[in-house]
Design goal:
single chain; alpha+beta; Beta-Lactamase; Alpha-Beta Plaits; 4 domains; 8-stranded mixed barrel; 5-stranded antiparallel β-sheet; 26 helices; binds ligand C2E; binds calcium ion
Length: 861
């Protein structure tokens, strides 16, 4: 098959060739038709020219003939020829007196025997031999004929002469007899000079008329014209090149004209040919190529479809299967004959095929939009398998739908894996959100659920939180073992599950703490009733290994119905209520009401004021003196924090310490107090008062604060001893490593350690030995109770015993009366502290106390 390019080339070649052919044939036609006319025209032209020349020659010869005739009868000549006179002088004179034509060159005279007698030269040149001979033979002829004759001297036969010599001979008559002959020689100019371009158009020659036949001019076109009555003719021979030249010129012009004339029709023909032949042809070629490509593509696609792993179906618009690939047979389990003409839905779908997926497919088929679904198919009616199915509509070239194509793959394995993964994931998720022991939702689950309900846009029903804390649950664990504890927790969980219904959520948030989130109806009354029910049920005895376990519970309730706090604050509000329930003696339900809210707000206000107080430096160290039990000398002071409030006066630690601790501001506060106290001691020194010892109350966390030691190290005094009072309760728990380390460090720096409120807690001897304190401070409740309580006395005694065995000092706190002082002194306390001697004093008062005290100030050495 030729390509478009070569067809184009051939087309334009044909157009070119036909143009050339048309041109050539037109030129030939012009040539053939015009040639005879040309020849004729030329002949006519030559003829008329020849006649003109002949007339001119005649015009030359005619006077010469007349003159020759006249002169031949001249008497002087006759006299001379007859012999009357001996000389021709008379004749010569006659000639000289006659006006001769220019062309006459000579006169020759012959006697009756043809012998030349004389001649007369007119021009300069003498006659040639040829002329002489011709003149003699002519004179002989004239002598015989007595006629006047004219002869041409053919001295240049075959050549084209420029000039020809004509002889006119007339008989010299005397009494009717020819006595001699007069020959006149005439030179006739023929102007046969060749043209400058070397092309001679015509050759003119004068010939003797009867001689013409003998002249071989070699030219058929030669023209002979008689010259007057001279008996001579003028021969015109044509130059054949002329015809050629004329012909060529004509043909060239004809070709030019014809080609100009043909250009337009051929141009139009070419353009039309291009439009009507080439272009449609190109279109056809293009569509043929496209068709071939499509066929190739189709056959490739068919091959791919046949080899595909996926099942491929083609159906008509009524979903009857018209084509399927081998994979479809393999996956569906049907044979080709079973498949043909069936619809996929009857063939493949069954009871467990998701109706939603079916509906989705139907909708897509109707709207001719592509769809992908995952659904259950049936292999041989019985065996279920999962497929991922994509269906798209097939459209013809005009965009009209004519069928559907469905591609599906067996995804049963993936579905199985997904199901397994889902099971595992949901198990893990469940674990992450539930308490392992009781199976109740855990804190994380609660947080998520609670947050959802807080965020919910529609908050029509009230939301309530019931905080539950088991009372003395630790005792159960401690006395009856963890299994019993677990049993109690599971029992409480069961109760909570029993009493909560609907969307309400029971939660174990940790240890012995539970929450019930009331979602359905969280009004305060409902929450309170539910809490009372739970309290009642929880209080019921539980049997464990033949023993009875009894636990109580404290409840804090907060409901959004009260509109006291934001929903998100409900948990904190319930916490505050729970705190109050515990404070009020446990085993009861407290709802977060207006009073409780006021308290919380009060605490919040306090917190704010503390923050401002710290900023303004309103916290001051007060000093409570300590005296030697024996000598009653002042042996030191304990630093006690006071808040010198601008409005409320001097406030005790009970009104701010707990809140400051909750706000984590205790460290800052302690630091501030310590810095001021150290400054005060320096001031005392400057005033010459040397304090033996100063004690600071510190929390365990403050002990580990590196700033503490830095501040102490920077102190300007060295004579006053520094001591830290740590609550006994610090040692109750497992002692953190860092505490040992810090205490060692303090001791290295020469600081002493006192255990505060000793006797209130349960510090073991072992832990005491590890701490190796310098002083034990007996809890003031024991001191104050001692006069009236034997138990207190015994306790004090035993504490003193411990101190003695550890070889350390004992301070009695809360010495309010002389009785207390004496008693403690007697019992063996080393140092006494209490209102009996002095309450905590501001710095200025301390100064005067130190200087005025009766017992004096112990020497710092
Ligand atoms: P504490 O360390 O046991 O201090 C002794 C408390 O008993 C002081 O109460 C003191 O004023 C009071 N007191 C002293 N003698 C008597 C007495 O004869 N009778 C009675 N009824 N009370 C007496 P205060 O100053 O209210 O301090 C209470 C607690 O606050 C202190 O108990 C101490 O644990 C803590 N505290 C005081 N100041 C600071 C401080 O700057 N930092 C730290 N972390 N805690 C401090
Ligand atoms: Ca203390
Ligand atoms: Ca104390």
């Amino acid at each position: 098959m030729r390509n478009i390019g070569s067809i184009n080339r051939v087309f334009w070649l044909l157009i070119g060739c036909s143009f050339a052919l048309a041109l050539a044939t037109s030129a030939a036609a012009v040539w053939i038709t015009s040639k005879p006319f040309l020849v004729e025209t030329q002949r006519q032209a030559v003829l008329s020219q020849a006649q003109r020349v002949a007339a001119r020659v005649d015009a030359i010869l005619d006077p010469s003939e007349s003159l020759t005739g006249f002169l031949s009868s001249e008497p002087t000549l006759v006299s001379y020829i007859v012999g009357y006179v001996m000389s021709d002088d008379g004749f010569v004179d006659r000639i000289e007196n006659t006006t001769l034509p220019d062309d006459i060159s000579e006169f020759l005279i012959f006697d009756f025997s043809g012998t030349p007698l004389s001649f007369h030269v007119v021009g300069q040149h003498s006659q040639s031999l040829d002329t002489m001979q011709a003149a003699r033979s002519l004179s002989l002829e004239v002598l015989t004929t007595n006629e006047m004759m004219t002869r041409v001297v053919q001295s240049h036969v075959g050549k084209i002469p420029d000039e020809q010599t004509i002889l006119i001979a007339a008989p010299i008559l005397h009494r009717g007899f020819a006595e001699g002959v007069l020959v006149t020689v005439v030179d006739v100019p023929l102007n046969n000079t060749p043209k400058a371009d070397g092309m001679v158009t015509l050759g003119k020659r004068i010939v003797q008329s009867p001689d013409v036949a003998h002249l071989n001019t070699g030219d058929d076109n030669a023209i002979l014209v008689p010259i007057g009555s001279t008996g001579l003719s003028l021969l015109f021979t044509s130059e054949s090149n002329l015809f050629k030249a004329i012909g060529q010129e004509m043909v060239t012009k004809a070709i030019l004209a014809v080609s100009a004339a043909l250009l337009l029709p051929f141009g139009v023909f070419g353009w039309l040919g291009k439009q009507t032949i080439l272009r449609p042809h190109a279109e056809v070629q293009r569509s043929r190529n496209k068709l071939r490509e499509q066929q190739k593509e189709l056959s490739e696609l068919a091959a791919i479809a046949r080899k595909a792993e996926e099942a491929i179906l083609i159906t008509d618009l009524d979903t009857h299967i018209v084509w399927h690939n081998p994979a479809f047979e393999r996956i569906s389990g049907y044979t080709a004959s079973q498949i043909k003409g069936q619809t996929p839905s009857t063939l493949l779908q069954g009871a467990n095929t998701d109706p939603k997926a079916r509906a989705k497919i139907r909708a897509a088929l109707i709207s001719h939009t592509p769809v992908t679904v995952e659904l259950i198919n049936y292999r041989n009616v019985t065996e279920e398998y999962w497929v991922r199915l994509s269906i798209s509509t097939l459209f013809d070239d005009l965009g009209k739908p004519y069928g559907y194509m469905a591609i599906s793959s067996d995804i049963s394995d993936r579905k199985r894996d997904e199901a397994n993964l889902l099971a595992t994931t949901s198990a893990m998720e469940w674990q992450a959100l539930h308490d392992e022991l009781t199976g109740l939702p855990n804190r994380r689950c609660f947080n998520v659920t609670f947050e959802e309900h807080c965020r919910a846009e529609e908050q029509t029903s009230a939301l309530a939180i019931i905080r539950i804390d088991l009372d003395h649950f630790k005792n159960v664990n401690d006395t009856m073992g963890h299994e019993a504890g677990d049993l109690v927790l599971c029992e409480v969980a069961r109760i909570l599950r029993d009493v909560t219904a609907g969307k309400n959520v029971p939660v174990r948030i940790g240890g012995d703490e539970f929450i019930v989130l009331l979602v359905d109806d969280g009004s305060l009354q409902v929450a309170q009733d539910l809490a009372e029910t739970i309290l009642h049920k929880v209080s019921q005895p539980i049997e464990y290994e033949g023993k009875i376990i009894r636990v109580g519970a404290s409840f804090g309730i907060a409901s959004s119905e009260c509109m006291l706090v934001e929903r998100r604050e409900l948990v904190r509000a319930a916490d505050a209520a729970l705190y109050l329930a515990k404070e009020r003696g446990r085993n009861q339900v407290v709802a977060y009401g207006t009073d409780e809210h006021r308290k919380v707000i009060g605490v919040r206000d306090t917190a704010e004021q503390i923050r401002c107080g710290i900023e303004r430096g309103e916290f001051e160290p007060f000093y409570q003196p300590q005296v030697d039990a024996q000598s009653r000398e002042i042996v030191g002071v304990e630093v006690l924090a006071r808040w010198v409030h601008p409005d409320r006066g001097v406030l005790l630690p009970s009104s701010f310490l707990r809140v400051a601790d909750q706000l984590s501001m205790l460290g800052t506060l302690d630091k501030m107090i310590m810095e001021k106290a150290l400054q005060d001691v320096s001031t005392l020194e400057e005033r010459g008062v040397h304090l033996p010892k100063i004690s600071f109350n510190v929390t365990a966390s403050r002990l580990s604060d590196p700033d503490l030691l830095v501040a102490i190290d920077k102190r300007e005094f060295r004579k006053t001893a520094v001591s830290f009072e740590i609550l006994e309760s610090v040692f109750l728990d497992d002692q953190p490593e860092f505490l040992d380390f810090t205490l060692d460090l303090l001791r290295e720096k020469g600081l002493s350690i006192e255990i505060d409120d000793f006797g209130s807690g349960h510090a073991s001897m072992i832990s005491l030995m590890r701490v190796r304190p310098d002083v034990l401070k007996i809890d003031q409740r024991l001191v104050m109770g001692a006069p009236d309580s034997r138990v207190c006395q015994n306790m004090v005694r035993s504490i003193i015993g411990i101190a003695e065995s550890l070889e350390i000092k004992v301070t009695a706190e809360g010495v309010e009366t002389r009785q207390h002082a004496d008693m403690m002194q007697r019992m063996g306390c080393t140092i006494l502290q209490g209102f009996h001697f002095s309450e905590a004093l501001p710095f200025d008062d301390l100064h005067s106390f130190l200087t005025t005290h009766q017992g004096g100030l112990r020497n710092t050495g």
